[in-house]
């Protein structure tokens, strides 16, 4: 054949495929499911199913429209088990003049493909993102220190998103409405929430589920409740429902958490975006249109657009700029193992058990759950950042390295020494108490740092400040927390150190 167009599992966009010059009359599409992609981190079943179900639906749609698709299934006989092993076999069959693909979302795979000798490779820059590699490099070049806020303002101006009538200044007179977006629920909780917008699995998804159960039987998580949108049509329906039902309160409650409530006012669109079922431009446009129709307040719409036009593009820029060295960073010299209960949720701390349980069940947790519950605990415990990265990359349906790694290693573990975040995100159990009702159902007390009822977050928070005193003192935004520690008596400090050591020695929980 003329060309093989290799469509990776996170490149499921027909428009992007055609943009790379695909001609159904002359070319073949190649798609490969490979066991190794689920085993190099211990990928949960919901995450693997998200990829396989979406890939299989995409291949069906292409085939129905007349494209020739060579599709290698996970459970196919004689499968080599790896992406490159199957690529070799496909190239031997099809003998193409060139291999086309959109660049992968992972440095490791990109490097392996660039090194291929067996066929001329034409790697296309990913058209899905609003900020190209060159544009990010230009942004970074002018700056000693990178900060999301300035990047985001540039993107707003360049893409003409949420600008006032003059076309230059921000709509509503401010770039940022974060101060309106830190609400928690009162004692009555979130009340009646919009129902989840999910889709029951069809025969294609059920077949993918069966293949996973057969090939990866002992992987964590379960797929009984799997109901994520895995086609573009269903993802568009989810987007529409989010805009109508959740966006108006997204801003106000984006940081809030509540026992047993997985979905709240978030969009649940990250996997659809990352697999390219949705384009960020259409998601941003839909949110902006809701604001102009008067259906959602500016603080919600700005807060939501900031996540996609700001954070999402920014972390991608950071990833490609600092890899592969980024993966090796460990600025806080953290070397503790990841507690084994991160893979089961079987832990006494209620916030952690709730977030991990929903994660394994649905492959989902919202940003503050990831940052300020599972991420914060690993940071305070001093877990090796690579082990934390291995967990986050394995458990979420939206996890792809370009977005997961800077969020985990940088934002949540501060292992990059301040590239992503200007300070470590540290807090005691009192933050979780303020933002949720988890503490009401927990055997521990967030106000206590020592004693059998002491909240492990609170103990480890003070111990973290004790351990990293010099680094924290140098940061004006954290110096106050060091001064607070200095008010502790010598006995209290000794008790905190002893309890922190005991927690670490007993597998991460008292
Ligand atoms: P919403 O709250 O509805 O936000 C809207 C959209 O904004 C998301 O769908 C997502 O596309 C984007 N977004 C929001 N925050 C971020 C962010 N910090 N970085 C990049 N995009 C963002 N997101 C992933 O897509 N994949 C990951 O593997 C991932 N790993 C993370 C690991 C850690 C430790 C942390 C703290 C965050 C991680 N995030 C990751 C970012 C964020 O938590 C998820 O994008 C979000 O929770 C997905 O849920 P949602 O679609 O309901 O998001
Ligand atoms: Fe989590 Fe501590 Fe609250 Fe328990 S008391 S739920 S461990 S923050």
From TrEMBL:
Q: Which InterPro entries match?
A: Crypto/Photolyase_FAD-like_sf, PhrB-like, Rossmann-like_a/b/a_fold, UV-DNA_repair_photolyase
UniProt keyword list: Lyase
GO terms assigned for molecular function: lyase activity
Family matches, as SUPFAM superfamilies: Cryptochrome/photolyase FAD-binding domain (SSF48173)
Annotated signal sequence range: none
> What protein is this chain from?
Cryptochrome/photolyase family protein
Lineage of this protein's species?
Bacteria, Pseudomonadati, Pseudomonadota, Gammaproteobacteria, Lysobacterales
């Amino acid at each position: 054949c003329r060309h093989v167009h290799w469509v990776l599992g996170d490149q499921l966009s027909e428009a992007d495929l055609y943009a790379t010059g695909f001609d159904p009359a002359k070319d073949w599409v190649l798609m490969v499911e490979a066991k190794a992609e689920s085993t190099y981190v211990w990928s949960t079943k919901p995450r693997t199913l998200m990829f396989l179900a979406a890939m299989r639906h995409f291949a069906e749609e292409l085939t129905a429209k007349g494209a020739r698709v060579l599709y290698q299934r996970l459970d196919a006989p004689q499968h080599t088990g790896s992406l490159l092993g199957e690529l070799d076999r496909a190239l031997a069959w099809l003998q193409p003049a060139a291999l086309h693909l959109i660049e992968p979302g992972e440095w490791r795979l990109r490097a392996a493909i660039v090194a291929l000798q067996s066929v001329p490779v034409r790697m296309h820059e990913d058209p899905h993102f609003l900020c190209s590699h060159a544009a990010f490099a230009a942004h970074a070049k002018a700056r000693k220190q990178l900060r999301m806020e300035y990047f985001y303002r540039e993107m707003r101006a360049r893409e003409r998103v949420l600008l006032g009538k003059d076309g230059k200044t921000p709509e509503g007179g401010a770039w940022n409405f974060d101060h309106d977006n830190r609400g928690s629920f009162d004692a009555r909780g979130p009340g009646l929430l919009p129902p989840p917008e999910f889709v029951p699995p069809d025969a294609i998804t059920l077949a993918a589920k069966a293949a996973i159960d057969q090939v990866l039987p002992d992987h964590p998580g379960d797929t009984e409740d799997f109901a994520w949108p895995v086609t573009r049509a269903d993802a568009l329906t989810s987007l529409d429902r989010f805009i109508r039902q959740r966006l108006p309160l997204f801003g106000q409650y984006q940081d809030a958490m509540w026992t047993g409530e997985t979905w709240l006012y978030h969009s649940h669109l990250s996997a659809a975006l990352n697999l390219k079922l949705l384009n960020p431009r259409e998601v941003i446009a839909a949110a902006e249109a809701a604001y102009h129709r008067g259906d959602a307040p500016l603080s919600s719409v700005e807060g939501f657009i900031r996540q996609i036009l700001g954070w999402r593009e920014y972390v991608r820029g950071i990833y490609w700029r600092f890899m592969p060295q980024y993966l090796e960073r460990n600025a806080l010299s953290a070397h503790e193992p990841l507690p084994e209960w991160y893979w089961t949720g079987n832990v006494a701390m209620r916030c952690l058990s709730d977030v991990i349980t929903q994660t394994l069940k649905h492959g989902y947790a919202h940003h503050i759950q990831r940052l300020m519950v599972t991420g914060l605990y690993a940071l305070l415990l001093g877990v090796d950042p690579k082990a934390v990265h291995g967990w986050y990359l394995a458990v979420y349906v939206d996890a792809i390295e370009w977005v997961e790694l800077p969020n985990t290693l940088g934002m949540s573990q501060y292992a990059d020494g301040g590239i992503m975040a200007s300070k470590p995100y540290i807090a005691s159990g009192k933050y979780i108490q303020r933002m949720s009702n988890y503490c009401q159902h927990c055997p521990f007390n967030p106000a206590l740092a020592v004693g059998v009822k002491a909240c492990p977050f609170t103990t480890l928070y003070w111990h973290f400040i004790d351990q990293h005193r010099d680094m924290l003192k140098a940061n004006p935004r954290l110096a106050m927390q060091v001064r607070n520690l200095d008010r502790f008596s010598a006995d209290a400090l000794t008790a905190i150190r002893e309890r922190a050591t005991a927690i670490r020695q007993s597998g991460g929980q008292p």
